Structures are given as C-alpha cells and as structure tokens.
Amino acid sequence: MNAVVVKGRPTLIDPQISLLQQKLQQGQRTVDHLKWFNDLSEEMLDTLVGEKPEPVSSSQLGEKFAPLSDLGVVVVPSVYKHADRLGSFGRRNRKMFYYFHSALTDANFPSPTRIVKPGDKLRVQAWKQTVPETTFEERLAFLAQTKSVHTGAQGASLVLEQLFEQLPEGYWCESFDERGRLWRGMIPRIRVYTLRSAEFHLYNPEHAFGDDSALLSFTLVSSAH
After folding, report:
1. 64 and 129 in contact (C-beta within 8 Å)?
2. Residues near 88 by Cβ (< 8 Å), separated by ≥ 6?
3. Is it the case that residue 49 has pLDDT exceeding 90?
4. What confidence tier does 194 reach under pLDDT thresholds 50, 70, 90?
5. What residue segments make up the domains of the chain, in order of their start?
6. Which residues contact 68 (CB under 8 A, 6 or more apart)?
7. Gap between the Cα atoms of 221 and 120, Å rounded
C-alpha cells in the first residue's frame, strides 16, 4: 500500500497516521475509518496528533549526542553558600566576564534539583549533538540516561571557576534543569574565549538548539550529605 497523506501531512511525519495505516493493513481498521480521519478539521487533527510528540527511544537519543570533552571533577569548596552563590561569584569574578546576564541571580534561581553542598565532588562532561537541531525534551532525556544531576546555574558557576581551561571554545555549554526550576524557563549557559574571558547567559529553550550548543552533565563522584 502506498503512503497515505492526510490533509497534506505525509504518513512518515505523523506517527499517529502511520499507526492508523498499519492498523488498516492489518485489518484492524477500515477504509471508512481512514476517510473519517481524513475529513477531520485541522483543529481536531492538531488535538489528536499535534499535542503529544512520540516518545524518543534510548537508541535515538544515543545517536543524537556524542562526547565532546571530559572536563574533570569540580569540588564544592568549604566556603560555598548556596543562598549567595551567584551573587558572590559574579562579584568575585567580574573582570572575567565579557557578559553576565542580569537575571542570573540567587533570587531567580533559588532551587536547582540538586543543591550542592561543601565537599561534594562531581564529574563534568560536555556533550555535542550530532544532528543539526535538538529539543529541550531530547536533551533532558539524554541527561537522564547519563545519570546526571541538575545543578542549575550554580553548577555552571563552579565549572567556570574550577574548569575554565578545560571548557571547549566555540560552544555554549548549558547546565540543564526541569522547566519548573528555571527562571521563566530560561537555561543557564556559559561560553569561554581566549584571554580568560567568558559569557554567562540565558537561553530560551522554545528555540531549537543548534550545533554550537553543548550539554554539561554532572555526575556525583562523592557526596558530603
């Protein structure tokens, strides 16, 4: 049977339509059912197939990301105070920054999923994507596969402070978290340049991530609590 096109939508693009065609081939649906589906309004089609994307398999995720750099281990210092981390870090390293986003404050990012404590050790790796674009959901799912903990903007600040020389030039390196823990849904990201200059920025994940965007994964080596 040839590929079915519904309302100008090719079967291969829409998983639900592909499933309908498969059931038709197996005798579980009739041609009348397919005609009914084809006569649905654009609004109803969007309701049925447009709101919930097909889950991405583990193998698909693995094909979309590859190791970029093993940065090493960050050790949370004994003087670390979560409540003032971003403010004190910004003041202490002001000369480093070509740009430091004004919204990267302790008040805006108070509750990352993992609040690190003095003595914690975390291995940090950077991952590049091997496809032109990836989504927020794909990146978060991949981090789950790596057993990464989400340290938010505070984790990114530790990387800048301790692993600056290991960060790959030419990439935005992002420290992810769940949407509800991000200020206005914005993702903290860092980028380094020669002469020890850096940017500490925010990115809107409603836009796709391009190939200059790398993921930071934080995995616990040892925990102080």
Report:
1. yes
2. 81
3. no
4. confident
5. 5-50, 58-222
6. 125, 126, 127, 128, 168, 171, 214
7. 8
Q: Is the pLDDT of residue 62 over 50?
A: yes
DSSP string, 161-209: HHSGGGSPTT-EEE----GGGSGGGPEEEEEEEGGGEEEEEEE-TTSPB
Dihedrals φ, ψ of 127, to 5°? -125, 135
Residue 196: what pLDDT? 86
Question: How is residue 146 written in tokens?
Answer: 């790596």
Rg of the chain taking only CA atoms, in angstroms: 22
Q: Dig out the tokens for 7 from the structure.
A: 């309302």
Q: Give residue-wise pLDDT tens across range 86-136.
A: 999 999 999 999 999 999 999 999 999 999 999 999 999 999 999 999 999
CB 77 within 8 A of CB 133: no
pLDDT of 23 > 60? The answer is: no
Instruction: Specify whether the CB–CB gap between 144 and 61 falls below 8 A.
Output: no
| 116 closest CA partner among 124, 128, 104 | 124
How, if at all, do strands 187-193 and 172-174 pair? antiparallel
Entry pTM? 0.73
